[in-house]
Write a sequence for this structure.
C-alpha cells in the first residue's frame, strides 16, 4: 500500500494486486491489534536495531525516517502517541486506523485494487513486462514485489514472493522465524505456564559461553517454553540452531547485586528463623515459581530458616541472579512475528530498491533479507523500502 501510494503520488498509473478480502490484513494484527507504527528515534538508532543487513537500509532510512512516517500518518488523519521504548501507536490503539488511512490515500490517488493473487512476474530479456495473476494478465512497465515473508501465512504471507523472485534469477536466503517464541525441554517451564516476569534481565549464551543478547524487560513461561518481548528480541540473535546451542539465564533481581541480595536473604532468615524456608522463597519469587526454585535447589521447603546453611543460602542467591532455562530451538516460522531471510540484498540497489537482475523490478519489505528487533522497527523497514520502491518504479515508468 505504501509503495502504491508513493508511485501514484509520482505520476504512475497503479494497480495493486491483493488476494485477501481486506487490505492490510497482516498490518491489522501487529502490536496485538494496536499497530506499533514505527519507533520515534534517529536514523542511527533505527540502524542499530536492525541486526541483519542494516547497512543496506541506510539510504532509504535517510530519505524516509521514523519522523517522516509519523508525519505521513498524522497528515493522513491518524493522531499518534509515543510510549515506553519510543514505540509509536495510533492514539486510538486501533491498527485498523492505520490500514484505513492507507486505503483512503489509495482511493484519493485513484490506485486500482484488483483482488487477485500474483502467480508470476513476466519479463523479456531481463526487463519486466507485467504480472500473471490467477484471474488474468496485467501489463506493466514496472513491478513492486512486496509480498512479505512466510510468518502468519493466514494473512497471505505464503512465500510466493520468494518463488517469483527466484524464477527471475534472485538468490533466496533460507527463511527462518525471527521475533519468535523459543521451545525448551525443561519441565520447569510447563510448571510455570502462564507466569509473566516483569523487570527481569535476560541473557542468551552460545555454545562458547559468550553472551549474544542481554536486555531488561518482560517475558513469559508457556507450555512449550518461553515467550514475551524479551524472548522475541533474543530470538533475533539466535541463528544456526543446527550447529549452535544456546541457553538462557534470567536475573530475577537485577536491581540488587549478589552481595545486597545475600544481605537481604540473611536478614529474612534471621528475622523469621522459625518459619519454613519456602516462606522466604515465596517472598522473593512469584507463587508459581516457588516449587521450581526449591526443586532446583534440592531443598525441602519445610526446612526451618535457622537450619539453612551458608551453602544453601549462597545457592539461592546464585539461582535468583542466574536462573537457567535451556532452549532447544525456535517455534515454527508460521508463529514468528517476522521472517528472517529472503531475497539477497546484494542483488538489490539500496538507493532505489530496484533489482540488479531484472530491470523494472522493485523489491520492498519483508521479502528482502532484512529484519529488526521489536519496537516498530520492522514496520519502519516496510514503510521506507515501500516508499522508495514506489517512487523509483514511478520514475522508471515515466522515463
Amino acid at each position: 500500500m505504501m509503495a502504491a501510494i508513493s508511485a501514484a503520488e509520482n505520476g504512475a498509473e497503479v494497480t495493486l494486486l491483493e488476494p485477501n478480502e481486506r487490505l492490510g490484513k497482516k498490518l491489522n494484527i501487529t502490536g496485538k491489534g494496536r499497530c506499533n507504527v514505527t519507533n520515534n528515534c534517529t536514523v542511527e538508532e533505527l540502524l542499530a536495531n536492525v541486526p541483519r543487513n542494516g547497512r543496506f537500509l541506510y539510504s532509504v532510512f535517510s530519505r524516509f525516517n521514523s519522523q517522516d512516517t509519523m508525519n505521513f500518518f498524522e497528515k493522513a488523519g491518524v493522531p499518534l502517541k509515543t510510549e515506553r521504548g519510543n514505540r509509536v501507536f495510533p492514539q486510538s490503539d486501533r491498527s485498523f486506523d492505520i490500514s484505513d488511512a492507507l486505503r483512503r490515500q489509495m482511493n484519493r490517488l485513484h490506485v486500482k485494487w484488483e483482488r487477485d493473487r500474483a502467480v508470476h512476474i513476466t519479463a523479456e530479456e531481463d526487463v519486466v513486462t507485467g504480472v500473471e495473476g490467477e484471474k488474468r494478465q496485467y501489463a506493466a512497465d514496472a513491478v513492486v514485489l512486496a509480498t512479505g515473508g512466510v510468518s502468519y501465512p493466514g494473512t497471505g504471507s505464503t512465500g510466493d514472493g520468494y518463488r517469483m523472485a527466484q524464477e527471475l534469477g534472485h538468490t533466496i536466503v533460507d527463511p527462518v522465524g525471527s521475533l519468535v517464541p523459543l521451545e525448551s525441554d525443561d519441565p520447569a517451564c510447563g510448571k510455570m505456564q502462564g507466569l509473566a516476569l516483569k523487570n527481569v534481565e535476560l541473557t542468551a549464551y552460545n555454545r562458547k559461553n559468550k553472551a549474544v543478547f542481554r536486555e531488561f524487560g518482560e517475558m513469559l513461561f508457556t507450555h512449550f517454553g518461553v515467550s514475551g518481548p524479551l524472548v522475541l528480541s533474543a530470538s533475533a540473535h539466535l541463528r544456526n540452531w543446527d550447529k549452535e546451542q544456546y541457553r538462557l539465564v534470567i536475573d530475577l533481581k537485577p536491581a540488587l547485586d549478589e552481595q545486597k541480595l545475600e544481605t537481604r536473604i540473611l536478614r529474612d532468615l534471621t528475622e523469621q528463623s522459625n518459619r519454613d524456608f519456602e516462606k522466604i522463597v515465596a517472598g522473593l519469587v512469584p507463587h508459581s515459581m516457588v516449587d521450581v526454585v526449591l526443586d532446583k535447589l534440592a531443598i525441602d521447603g519445610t526446612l526451618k530458616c535457622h537450619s539453612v546453611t551458608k551453602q544453601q543460602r549462597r545457592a539461592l542467591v546464585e539461582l535468583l541472579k542466574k536462573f537457567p532455562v535451556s532452549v532447544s530451538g525456535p517455534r515454527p516460522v508460521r508463529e514468528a512475528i517476522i521472517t528472517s531471510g529472503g531475497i539477497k540484498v546484494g542483488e538489490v540497489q539500496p538507493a532505489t530498491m530496484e533489482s540488479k537482475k531484472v530491470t523494472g523490478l522493485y523489491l520492498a519489505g519483508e521479502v528482502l533479507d532484512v529484519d529488526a528487533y521489536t519496537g516498530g522497527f520492522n514496520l519502519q523497514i516496510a514503510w521506507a523500502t515501500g516508499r522508495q520502491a514506489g517512487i523509483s518504479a514511478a520514475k522508471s515508468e515515466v522515463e
Remarks:
- The two ends are 23 Å apart (CA to CA).
- The mean pLDDT is 94.
- Residues 377-398 form the longest helix (22 residues).
- DSSP finds 13 helices and 19 strands in the chain.
